[in-house]
Backbone:
């Protein structure tokens, strides 16, 4: 049977994955309220179609942080792709390159960044960072990222503590162990997961540390996980290059804003204040795959 | 068991049709949000009954584009009736004639237009067109339609691209093949489906092409699929004779307006602006059978 | 197991009744929207409890049309009680007398009015009428009702046509036949159902006929089935003695107002306009058992 | 499988308890509307997370009625813990002491107050009272409570009549009998339940009796069950030391206010009027475990 939509791919994956891997991907944090709100928010979107327009040819190209993409779509950073497919993030990078969209590579990628960069040399790639308590390690990593041709740095701000995913607790999931198991397609021969070893995440990082981050990289800095007007205003004030409005697909703090209503005050800042002040060259609100509301504004 | 309502007919049909035919009829586009919204919109309708009125005799007659009908009801254009019943659209035409309502014959009818016209000579009939990229073919067809006594031309504007019906993809439905299969009641001896061969639909047609359409027919022109105030205003400006507010039963673009709230701004134009300007002689909002909100306004 | 609430009684009845009798009682008209709305409206009622009040003794007595009842509750008129219990409406009358509430006897009672009156001589009883096209028959019936001690006349206005109950159609229910079947506890020896034979109901009756009805009875007249502000105002104007706000338990026209929102404009008239004009001595909004919102206002 | 959340504990308990004990704990009054509203109200809570704050160290300490607790959480008074665990309320008291939160011991505790006090000597404990019609019994009990080191008196005001719990009626639950059954872990050797024998609850108690209650104890008095602005204002006027906004977990009167909307007018009084007048030293809105909305305001 042909796979006609995401739901079909979901069913296809569920049949083929172990329960603990499926749960790891499918589940949100705590009561799954935010995950479910995200899906419901998608369902509330309504389009007002205009007709009798010549649509024989359609062009969806745009630019993001100065680079052209074929459509206003980025692949959000998600980790552990080798749990699902033998060559993990390398497949994702090639798919993004083929579609002409931006691939934001997660710091928890299970392929080496060198391999990801080499397999899709023409595709636009950004790198996503969880700051490590050891500042020297952050600096070394970012130098490597820059030299491999990643064009922007996405700093995730919504994981001061890891989300409480109940099914992972019940399954006693151990990602490090899982990735060593033979049946999970992990490319053991590669010296990967150096970044995964970098845990724990620094929970002390604050707005004051942004100038230090800006001092150790030439890449534009995008903050991922902003959900409030106040934090969006602080992002403008601290001269970051963009923000990603996201609730982490409902996998971090549960019961947070979502959808067109929950985050409209942030989107208004993206549309109005950033636009008039022109501080940022690109401002973006992307979503976890299949989970969040996708909003996109460009300056 | 007597069939007491549409739901009973639905169950009756489902038992007797092949899965792919049932799915073709039942399914909307994409996530079925609009199809389901349509049904929910019907459920939200509330009447304010006034009592102690003499209702021993009730008269529901009205006129549409100058012709009298027994009730303010038209049968919306739907194709491929031969999938469901041996003499397909001829049955529908006779039923409409018996009920005294208008039958809008679809361009994707599976009976010859001559047969449809001949079987119900006294019934009011309109013809629905998907414009073809070859203008000459459109002209020839409309001349034939006029000579057969169809009294208005309904141009569907909401199919610049065919709706994405997932179940049809999963079923690998091939309508041309299906109609040749013996068990589908298709009248092979007739030279039907000439219009079905006319595909593809012209996706370049725009408001500027309306004057050309008006030049090749004497029939009043009704635009079907208008969903926004802006397009309704353009319809007034372009001197069309009516509009049909419809989301194609949720079978075209999903996530579009529906119901009394979703399209009220359009209905207000029908009620107010058209009424005062008197540009149109009849203005109508019909619905896909059992799917849409039925609204009817006459000037 | 003790029967702890109406739901328990419902389950108890369903087990013991034939399918067609259960359906006749349970079902509303058409899509059951109004029936279900009624139940939902009940669920929406919220009380604001005040505490630290001395409630050791509670008195719920009030008066209706000048008669005292133990609580502001009337048993709404429903027909065919013999379908459910051997002595039918006589049981109901005795229960109402024991509880000290008013029993509105339906014209479609399956016990003789004489028997109902005799079995509960001290209970307050009203009589409910569907007007018959033959005016003389109405007059004779009302004289009999008066002589039996019924204290008010309830005229049902919301049945110009009988509600379309699909399950009854599917079950090919024939009430006259059902009541003659042995297993339905019908008291064959009694010459009952004289009123049931009076069908059909007069669908030509209008506001202008009220003065005639007022001329043939000394009983106060209550209109049952008023759902709009306009009709409530007409009731004031025509000097009726009360109105019952009811949608017939959702068994007549479907998709009509219900609950505290749907009928609030009517209830406001009951509270305000009737109160100031003092035209009516009692004004009441009762409900079908277990179905409607119960509202009660007295002047 | 690890127990990851309250839902897991619920399933664990359901497997191990008799049906009548489970029902007694799980069920609300009447239709369970308020119980279910409470759960829905929890689900509606949305947080607005602010990020890039240093959260390496978090301190949730606060004070209540002058005593420090580790977090703004109290264990609400619930009775009959011996139905669930051999040493009943003694376990609860030790758990509260370990967590550093306040334990409000129910008058319907199934362990002797002396044992509860002795098993958790350092934990903050309050005592909850249902006033008995015999005033002398109330006085004796409160003297004992004070001498055992309970630091506040919580008077429940929302049980002038016991809630109508249908499942208990259907199960013919007899709590006194249940607690004597061997399989219910009841500590028969102890002379407990002296207060349970004190039933019935005084339904005549009113605001005027508060001064008498204040005269027989030195403990601060907290009223539990206030749901309206009017009663909150009366509480201020009568110089009580705090109120607990609660609908008794939906186990008393059904269909009452709940959640952030239902009780916001009361919470506004807690926040505004009490704050400015400074009459109360602490004002608290706690919830039944897993049922109510938890709101906490301190002055």
Residues:
């Amino acid at each position: 049977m042909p796979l006609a939509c995401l739901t079909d791919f979901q069913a296809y994956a569920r049949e083929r994955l172990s329960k603990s891997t499926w749960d790891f991907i499918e589940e949100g944090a705590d009561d799954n309220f935010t995950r479910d709100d995200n899906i419901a928010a998608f369902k509330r979107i309504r389009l007002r179609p205009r007709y009798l327009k010549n649509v024989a040819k359609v062009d969806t190209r745009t630019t993001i942080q100065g680079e052209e993409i074929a459509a206003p779509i980025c692949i959000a950073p998600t980790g552990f792709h080798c749990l699902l497919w033998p060559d993990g993030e390398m497949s994702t990078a090639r798919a993004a390159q083929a579609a002409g969209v931006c691939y934001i590579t997660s710091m928890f990628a299970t392929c080496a960044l060198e391999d990801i960069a080499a397999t899709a040399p023409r595709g636009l790639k950004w790198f996503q960072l969880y700051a490590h308590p050891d500042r020297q390690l952050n600096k070394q990593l970012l130098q490597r990222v820059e030299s491999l041709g990643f064009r922007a740095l996405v700093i995730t701000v919504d994981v001061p503590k890891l989300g409480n995913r109940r099914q992972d607790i019940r399954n006693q999931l151990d990602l490090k162990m899982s990735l060593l198991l033979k049946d999970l397609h992990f490319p053991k021969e590669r010296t990967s997961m150096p970044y995964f070893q970098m845990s724990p995440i620094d929970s002390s990082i604050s707005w004051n540390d942004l100038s230090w981050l800006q001092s150790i990289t030439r890449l534009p800095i995008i903050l991922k996980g902003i959900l409030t007007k106040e934090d969006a205003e602080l992002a403008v004030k601290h001269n970051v290059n963009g923000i990603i409005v996201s609730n982490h697909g409902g996998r971090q703090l549960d019961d947070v804003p979502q959808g067109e209503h929950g985050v409209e005050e942030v989107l208004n800042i993206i549309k109005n204040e950033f636009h008039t002040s022109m501080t940022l060259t690109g401002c973006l609100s992307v979503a976890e795959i299949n989970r969040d509301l996708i909003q996109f504004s460009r300056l």
Q: What stands out?
A: The domain at 6-45+59-297 of chain D is CATH 3.20.20.70 (TIM Barrel). The first strand of chain D starts at residue 62 and ends at 64.
